[in-house]
Amino acid sequence: MMDRPTQAAPAADLTAVRVDPLAVALGNASLLGAGYVLLQRWRLALGSGLVTVVLVAVLASAAPSVWFVVAVLLWWAVVTVHGWYLAQTGPRSMQPRRIREQRLAALGVTVPVLLVVAVLRFDAERITHDVAEARRDGDCPQALAALARLSASHRVAAPLAPRGDDTVRACALSARAAADLDTGLTGDLEALDAGFRALSAVLAETPGHERVVDRVLDGFIAGLPSGDACQTAAVTDWLGGHQRFDGDVANRVADVVLRIAPAAIVGCADTYRAQALVAADKESQVANWHQARERYQHLLDQYPDHELAAKARDNVRQATLAIELATVRDLLDDAYADMLPSYCDKPAPYSGAAPYRRGRVNRALLYGPELDAEHNSYNYRRRLPSGWLVRDVTKATLVICAGKTTFGARVKTCPYENNFLPQGYSFVTFRKVTIPVRVYEVRTGKLVRSVKVHVRGASCPRVLKYETLADLADIGPPSEVYVNPSTSDVRDAFGPLFR
Question: Which of 159, 300, 328, 357 is the most exposed place for a label (fewest CB within 10 A)?
């Protein structure tokens, strides 16, 4: 056998390249450091993995940021290119089968990662769409249910997708507003204010959630009017005086006030009027009439052209008459036996009374501490015609206040026996009865006349009766006495007061 010389095979044929650059790049594209593992660069693999973990944690928790997403993409590009570069430094030839195995291994790591990211991004988009739909409908339960499906994985795969924090806040504020407004329907104005402040916060702090506000307002408006007219009136009064919104929301609030407020105000006034009519005591009666009048007048002030305005005007007058009558009766009822009623010093009007007409007999209430006293066995009040006097102020045109009687002008002086004196007689002067009188018109409470009434009468009777103290000596008749008026004398004196 003969030995022949042969050429040695290249070293590349005997020792294959350990890692394919493309496989390394593909492995590092997973951001899991798989390319570095192929290169057996364990420190790089561990370090890149830690960096990726930190980035993923930040993506899952931080607010969406374009700059942070750019940083993640740059990191992805750096580790991919760096893996390619490191693989390029080794031998450049290797067995095709080995190349395929490495590339398939790298794809086996990267492709699932990319598929998971793609699926999560798609699901995040679908969730975002569902949230947007629910938000457009103002459906907070549906929006929150959709957001509950959004996990940290979604936030990593789709870092720029909306997190829904504004929707969560809008729904929390709207839920609180709805609860406060429900309480506000009972007339709790503090709760009403809190509810509308929460809705204002939704509009100011979470743009795009107008329909959420609309839904809460829909529920609130549906509760109006409530079963209690006074509660409803309190709510509409508050709404009319505390405008917090602009645009469509403001228009809706204004419309509901205009639609509901007039009937609520009148209904509340009617409630107080009914309570006044059945009140057992005068204080409650007057208080209810005041409340009723205030609310009827409120309607006239706010809605003077409303169809209920005529009813309100009639009831304002009725309430005013009732209040005036109660006031006048209080002033008249505090008279004492020896005192005039308070009315005589501080008269008040009762506009339901008939007007005073000069020249005609005006019926009157007559007060005076001495009108029933007997002067010379005479009672003045009882000698006036019954048609001139009334007992109830509602039937009176005048209130006549008579003061204390005094001696008036001298009529005649006559001598009478007086055993106490040496001459056996004394002189007695007979004088007219003078009474100061003030006359008030009940309708206006105005003073229409202030005069002194002078009552004439008979004098110097044959027998003069007088009083003396039983325990003392009879010193004779007094030096001055009143005349003895006849019925016609009394009527002539008092008659002009009634005309």
Answer: 357
Q: Which residues pair with 407 in a beta bridge?
A: 433
Task: Give me the domain span that covers residue 449.
Answer: 342-498
Domain boundary among 90, 116, 131: 131
pLDDT at residue 277, as a whole number? 93
The answer to whether residue 308 is domain-embedded is: no
Compute CA distances 355 → 77, 321, 329, 365, 447, whole Å: 104, 15, 18, 15, 13
190-221 per-position pLDDT tens digit: 999 999 999 989 989 988 888 999 999 999 99
Cβ contact 404:373 at 8 Å:
no
The last residue of one of the domains, among 131, 153, 181, is: 131
Kindly state whether residue 435 falls inside one of the protein's structural domains: yes
What are φ and ψ of residue 206, in 5° steps?
-130, 70
Instruction: Please count the structural domains in the chain.
Output: 2
Q: Is 293 inside any structural domain?
A: no
For 12-72, the DSSP string reads HHHS--S--HHHHHHHHTTTS-HHHHHTT-HHHHHHHHHHHHHHHHHHHHSPP-HHHHHHH
Cβ–Cβ under 8 Å, residues 190 and 242: no
Question: Does residue 217 lie in a domain region?
Answer: no
The rounded distance, in Å, linking the Cα atoms of 273 and 287 is: 10
| Contacts of 220 by beta carbon, 8 Å cutoff, 6+ apart | 178, 181, 182, 184, 185, 195
Tell me the per-residue pLDDT of 358-386, one tens digit each, with 9 for 90 and over. 989 999 999 987 776 655 445 778 889 98
pTM of the model: 0.70
